[in-house]
Amino acid sequence: MDSKSQLRKYRWVDSKLWSLLKKIPCHEEFYRYVQWHNLAFTVTNNNNIPVHVLQYHSYSTNFDRTLEIFLRFLDLRRNGKIEPFQTGKEYHSYYTKTQREDIRNFILEFASVDTWDQMKGYKF
């Protein structure tokens, strides 16, 4: 773990959040990932921007229906050949059970209500 993390240099990470972050590998990437979602929901909510959230597993379980709903949201038509979706991109085996629990605890603490609502169904 990088004890000189750039995140600790800024006020964005207090001691409680740091105590959770420092337990997980690639903690800065997890911070960025959650913060991106937090900010995306903030911007879209504050500006009344319509949002359609895509869940990765939807492509795996019902690709055609997921694509249809997404194209309708964008007000687009299906055009041309659709490339097959490559399933199975999951990374659970990269982390130990303890690390996955630590990742979940960090996300639960740091995520906004909207972000957590979208992430809580994922297997960490």
Describe what is shown at a glance.
With 124 residues, the chain is mostly helical.
Question: Total number of β-strand segments?
Answer: 0
pLDDT average, as an integer? Answer: 88
Number of helical segments with 4 or more residues: 6
Unreliable residue runs: none
Helix content: 40-55%
Main sheet properties? none
* CA-atom Rg in angstroms: 17 Å
How does the helix and strand content classify structurally? mainly alpha
Strand percentage: under 5%
Shape: globular
- Helix and strand sequence: HHHHHH
| Straight-line N-to-C gap | 20 Å
Describe the structure.
The protein has 124 residues and is mainly α. It has helices at residues 15-21, 27-46, 56-61, 63-74, 97-110, 113-119. The longest helix has 20 residues, at 27-46. The protein starts with 14 loop residues before the first helix and ends in a 5-residue tail after the last helix.
Describe the protein's topology.
Layout: H1 15-21, H2 27-46, H3 56-61, H4 63-74, H5 97-110, H6 113-119
Name the features.
124 residues, single chain
